[in-house]
Design brief:
- By secondary structure, the chain is an alpha/beta fold.
- It has 2 domains: 1-76, no CATH class; 83-319, Rossmann fold, CATH 3.40.50.300.
- 42% of the residues lie in helices and 14% in strands.
- The chain is built from 14 helices and 9 strands.
- It has a 6-stranded mixed beta sheet, with helices on both faces. It has a 3-stranded antiparallel beta sheet with strand order 2-1-4, with no helix packed on it.
- Helix 8 (175-185) packs across helix 9 and helix 9 crosses helix 10 (221-234).
- The radius of gyration is 25 Å and the shape is globular.
- The termini are far apart.
- Residues 79-314 form the ABC transporter domain.
- Belongs to the ABC transporter superfamily.
- One of its GO terms (molecular function) is ATP hydrolysis activity.
- Keywords: ATP-binding, Nucleotide-binding, Transport.
């Protein structure tokens, strides 16, 4: 790779590999050197500068090549994830889970069970791509085969994006800067357009609107979840999304799921919400730390979703009345009819 890079000018390098500018951003006198070849640029770096950086010339050159190779790897096509398979392990008492469940791209599978029953443990096994090396002894297959274990540790091969119950930003960025930075890291060409689209989608999901210049640290819990769901749908390369109790986020739950499914993600969601549980193609029932059974959502249950959704819509309307300082001394007639 060095043979081809070393003869380019710095200007040509930035044109062909825009991310290379990040590597050089901390070095002095870059503007005056843009017409220099990359090889000449490295040769001309003064010893005092290298000493200030605390690095030798050869080591610095190797770091540059390593950076370029890693960034190019991000562009490589990844193996398409068509399915994941959960092979049962054991529950908290050591009782065997008699199950082998395959979940395909575009499916929603809900995980239900009492608090503390082991729903989050199952999500963790999938995220860790367990190979009988977790407390549950479960095994996860990708496309029906043993996975490449680099996916456990490598950012570029990460299979799973997880949206947890508690989400807080600690970086000093605006919403626009945060999304734009993520889009840039994915080496997209139309960063401004993608960023604007993601923020618009997040606002469709959030209960309360926010602006592109809103600091991410000022977002509410619901706004943060909405932003991360839109960001995951459009920017995350992870084909599997694990969601822990989205019902408490105060966002448009159904549209959030549709957004992820439209992007052909495999969605697994731990939930206590009956509407979300019935929106799934299947639901995994967890008891005593183990998978008790898997239930296919029936057509009759899907029919009941219409009634449950109508009730939910009315409850949301009442919530908005209360949030805006109103009174509900009398239950609206339409809601009484539903109940």
């Amino acid at each position: 790779m060095w043979d081809s890079l070393s003869v380019m000018t710095i200007k040509q390098l930035f044109s062909s590999y825009p991310y290379a500018a990040d590597f050089f951003s901390s070095l002095p006198n870059l503007e005056q050197s843009e017409e220099s070849s990359v090889g000449a640029y490295f040769a001309a770096i003064e010893e005092d500068t290298l000493q200030d950086l605390g690095i030798g010339r050869q080591e610095f050159l190797e770091q540059f090549l390593s950076f370029m190779l890693q960034m190019e790897k991000l562009k490589e096509d990844k193996v398409k994830i068509e399915s994941i398979t959960i092979i049962g392990g054991k529950d908290k008492q050591g009782k065997a889970e008699d199950i082998e469940l395959t979940i395909h791209a575009g499916e929603i599978v809900c995980i239900v069970g009492p608090t503390g029953s082991g729903k989050s443990r199952l999500l963790a096994d999938i995220e860790w791509v367990a190979q009988q090396d977790t407390p549950t002894n479960r095994k996860i297959l990708i496309n029906g085969q043993l996975p490449d274990m680099r996916c456990r540790f490598s950012v570029e091969h990460k299979l799973v994006a997880q949206l947890s119950q508690n989400m807080n930003f600690i970086m000093d960025l605006s919403v626009e800067e945060f999304v734009s930075m993520h889009a840039e890291s994915r080496m997209l060409e139309n960063i401004e357009e993608v960023t604007s689209h993601i923020i618009a989608k997040a606002n469709e999901l959030a209960g309360e609107q926010f602006n592109p210049d809103t600091p991410v640290t000022s977002l509410s819990g619901g706004q943060s979840r909405a932003l991360m769901i839109a960001d995951t749908a459009y920017l995350s390369s992870s084909p599997i999304v694990l969601i822990d109790e989205i019902e408490n986020a105060g966002i448009d739950r159904q549209n959030a799921l549709r957004l992820l499914i439209d992007k052909q993600k495999i969605v697994l969601m731990a939930t206590h919400d009956p509407i979300l549980a019935l929106m799934g193609d299947k639901r995994i029932v967890i008891k005593n730390g183990g998978i008790s059974k898997v239930i296919l959502t029936s057509e009759k249950e899907r029919g009941n979703l219409i009634l449950l959704t109508a009730i939910d819509r009315k409850m949301l309307a009442i919530r908005e009345v209360l949030r805006s300082g109103g009174h509900i001394d009398e239950i609206p007639m339409a809601l009484e009819e539903i109940i």
